[in-house]
């Protein structure tokens, strides 16, 4: 720590020390994040078998999107975990929005996802319009069936018709796409990134975090060839977190480094220590920001 912070020019000169004897810091190289997550999971399992509780172990990272590979791996390895100071990857607003489009394309009876995305980004569909569409349902019709009927029979205003017609066409086009292609198609045809900029309300750090989450979503989706396979993995991770609600406080802590200040653990894994990730790429052009990364 002293050697790292010594590189900063704007600081008060001091030396960090500890009266306690800790473990030796180890450095390990990995070819990709999946290999890194598997290695961490194997070490955590060994430490847990040696008697260290899961809640005394932590995985720390610079940027939120790094949590995904560990959420996936810990689920596969049956290792309990808890997100600290944030939501799980698939619980984040932008991820739920984009996955919602894929879910509606695959499962047209997913009314909850349809209600989430039908006006995201905005298409002028308020509660009144949604109620009018729902009123067309008969028997076992889904909300998507009613929407198709509303578009087909042109029972809505011309402005709404054009937007919802494009929406229905998009949903139909997604059905035969790979997961990664489908996510990219939604972003391109809905203007989702513009929507995200408006949602961030000028908070550039928040916008960057959400954009990085979307990049990670596309990367994760590229590893699956069909929508059902991808959506099944999403569902399993979300279901696992619901089941673990009562016990998650006893799980391995997943946290950004910023959110972990002042906390202590028996063993800590600091992952993703590579250029443009930690230190973050946005800090590379500013000496002041780079110094903040070191702190």
Molecular structure report:
The protein is mainly alpha-helical and 295 residues long. It is built from 13 helices and four strands. The chain has a four-stranded parallel beta sheet with strand order 2-3-1-4, covered by helices on one side. The radius of gyration is 23 Å and the shape is elongated. The relative contact order is 0.18. The model has no long low-confidence stretch (mean pLDDT 88).
Summarize the structure.
This protein has 295 residues and is mostly helical. 52% of the residues lie in helices and 6% in strands.
Arithmetic mean pLDDT = 88
Radius of gyration: 23 Å
What is the distance, rounded to the nearest whole angstrom, between the alpha carbons of the first and last residues?
A: 9 Å
Order of strands across the biggest sheet? 2-3-1-4
Number of helical elements: 13
Structural class: mainly alpha
Largest sheet: 4 strands, parallel
In terms of DSSP E residues, the strand content is 5-15%
Number of strands: 4
Regions with little confidence, pLDDT below 50 for 5+ residues: none
Q: Indicate the percent of residues in helices.
A: 40-55%
Order of helices and strands: HHEHEHHHHHHHHHEEH
Gross morphology: elongated
Record keyword descriptors for this entry.
single chain; 295 residues; mainly alpha; 4 strands
Q: Secondary structure elements and their pairing?
A:
Blueprint: H1 2-5, H2 33-49, E1 57-61, H3 67-76, E2 81-83, H4 93-106, H5 111-117, H6 127-134, H7 143-153, H8 158-174, H9 179-190, H10 192-200, H11 204-221, H12 227-243, E3 252-256, E4 267-270, H13 287-294
Parallel strand pairs: 1-3, 1-4, 2-3
Helix pairs in contact: 2-3, 4-5, 4-8, 4-9, 7-8, 9-11, 10-11
């Amino acid at each position: 720590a002293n050697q790292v912070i010594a590189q900063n020019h704007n600081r008060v000169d001091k030396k960090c020390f500890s009266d306690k004897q800790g473990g030796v810091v180890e450095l390990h190289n990995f070819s990709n994040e999946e290999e890194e997550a598997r290695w961490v999971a194997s070490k955590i399992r060994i430490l847990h078998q040696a008697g260290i509780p899961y809640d005394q172990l932590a995985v720390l990272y610079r940027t939120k999107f790094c949590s995904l590979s560990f959420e996936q791996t810990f689920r596969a390895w049956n290792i309990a975990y808890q997100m600290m100071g944030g939501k799980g990857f698939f619980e984040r607003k932008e991820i739920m929005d984009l996955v919602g489009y894929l879910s509606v394309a695959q499962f047209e009876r997913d009314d909850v996802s349809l209600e989430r995305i039908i006006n995201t980004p905005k298409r002028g569909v308020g509660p009144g319009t949604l109620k009018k569409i729902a009123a067309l349902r008969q028997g076992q019709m889904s909300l998507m069936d009613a929407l198709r009927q509303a578009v087909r029979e042109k029972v809505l205003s011309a402005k709404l018709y054009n937007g919802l017609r494009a929406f229905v066409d998009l949903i139909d086009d997604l059905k035969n796409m790979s997961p990664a292609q489908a996510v990219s198609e939604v972003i391109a045809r809905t203007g989702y990134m513009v929507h995200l900029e408006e949602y961030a309300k000028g908070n550039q750090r928040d916008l960057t975090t959400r954009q990085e989450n979307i990049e990670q979503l596309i990367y994760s989706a590229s590893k699956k060839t069909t929508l059902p396979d991808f959506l099944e993995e999403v569902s399993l991770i979300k279901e696992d977190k619901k089941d673990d609600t009562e016990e998650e406080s006893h799980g391995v802590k997943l946290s950004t480094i910023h959110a972990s200040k002042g906390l202590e653990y028996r063993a800590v894994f600091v992952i993703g220590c590579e250029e443009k990730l930690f230190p973050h790429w946005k800090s590379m052009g500013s000496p002041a920001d780079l110094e903040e990364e070191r702190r």
